[in-house]
Amino acid sequence: MRLLWKSLDKMRCLRKRSAIPFLGFLITFLLFLNLYIEDGYVLEGDKRQLRETSVHPASSERYVHTFRDLSNSSGTINVTYRYLAGTPLNRKKYLTIGLSSVKRKRGNYLLETIKSIFDQSSYEELKEIVVVVHLADFDLVWCENLVQEITRKFPHHIIAGRLLVIQAPEQYYPSLEGLKRNYNDPEDRVRFRSKQNVDYAFLLNFCTNLSHFYIMLEDDVRCSRNFLTALKKVITSREGSYWVMLEFSKLGYIGKLYHSKDLPRLAHFLLMFYQEMPCDWLLIHFRGLLAQRDVIRFKPSLFQHMGYYSSYKGAENKLKDDDFEEDSIDIPDNPPASLYTNINVFENYDATKAYSSVDEYFWGKPPSTGDFFVIVFNNASKISKIKITTGSDDRQNDILHHGALEVGEKLVGTKKGKQCSSFITLGEFKNGNIEVQDVDHKIAFDIECVRIVVTAGQREWLIIRSISLWTTQPPSQ
């Protein structure tokens, strides 16, 4: 505890510095405090003293109260929701899609967004999703009229338990008056973004136990076809790796994916700092504090912003995601695997980055004849297509000038890890790239390794921008 009090002393000294570093320190301090309270290490007297010494006494009681809530068995916030349409099913689904919507001064895109979600999903995909709409406006007449429209347009989805419409009553909201004006935002802007943080917190809290994964959309979004299948491929490819948030759009709070088990903590986080900054900025802090330092964003984007008028004052909002593709079903499967290379790696551009759908790549120093880059699958796979690209737009000569693509079987253990003892060549690289179709028709065995072999040394460095593999059956879950 002595360390905690020293931290508080430092926090007092930082008052006069800029808001952003101070907030980062405060967030870090409160999360560490959370660990103490969850494990029962903070005594009641300590909690009282923390309330008394907080920089913002009016907010500190809410923060400590929130941390107390984290110590209960469920970790969820005690809110009694209104069910406006539909009821949750007992069986957990694969994915919950969350939307929060308020009355707009100009335009309303919620119905189009819901329609896009359902229209762009196959019958099999629909069985694995649940859409939760939080009508976060206190105008009850508007809510009632919108619920009637939703019920009229999507009755079978409501009956099937695929669509729920909820509301968190106004009495559960914290005060939205006299808020801190960080970044010199006008009062109405601060009130809007602060309420939005609370809206999302209550939505996340409700969705905690509905599915294994959760993705947030805004209420003015168009979806790519079969987006769930694309999501599942990406999630499967990340098996065994740590992540907090995966991003499937580069805009705002659109297409941000979480494990459902993390939703209570994220909900509490948004509530604690609801008046500090916009939600998409808070998400960056949340991700970093849970030890995911880098953005993990996938291309192509699966969701596109379609609204023309913002929910804030009806201002024009023409933002578009130029990485969006309407048909993204051809995302590679990339089965779980280990990657090895004897090419000298530059800095942190390691081998795994060539095998990811994220916008990153492997970068190595000039390779020599016989150097290799090998992918060893966790389980033998039937591969239908392999596509490998090297070089980049700004380093177009850092390609594999001379190389071959091989597939192998018969795994054996070596000092450098598992390798295949038998390989067959599929083809040669041309202009740094190779694509082989119908691999499963050309190879009789289930593939255990894919290997790139350098057939002639080069002076140029080597970028392997992407390795894409498609299987002949859906990846196992």
Automatic annotation (TrEMBL):
InterPro entries, sorted: Glyco_transf_54, MGAT4, MGAT4_A/B/C_C
MGAT4 A/B/C C-terminal domain ranges (all copies): 337-465
Stretches of the chain forming a coiled coil according to its record: none
Pathway where it operates: Protein modification; protein glycosylation
Domain MGAT4 conserved region: 61-324
Keywords attached to this entry: Glycosyltransferase, Membrane, Transferase, Transmembrane, Transmembrane helix
Superkingdom of origin organism: Eukaryota
Designated name of the protein: Alpha-1,3-mannosyl-glycoprotein 4-beta-N-acetylglucosaminyltransferase C
Record organism: Takifugu bimaculatus
Lineage: Eukaryota, Metazoa, Chordata, Craniata, Vertebrata
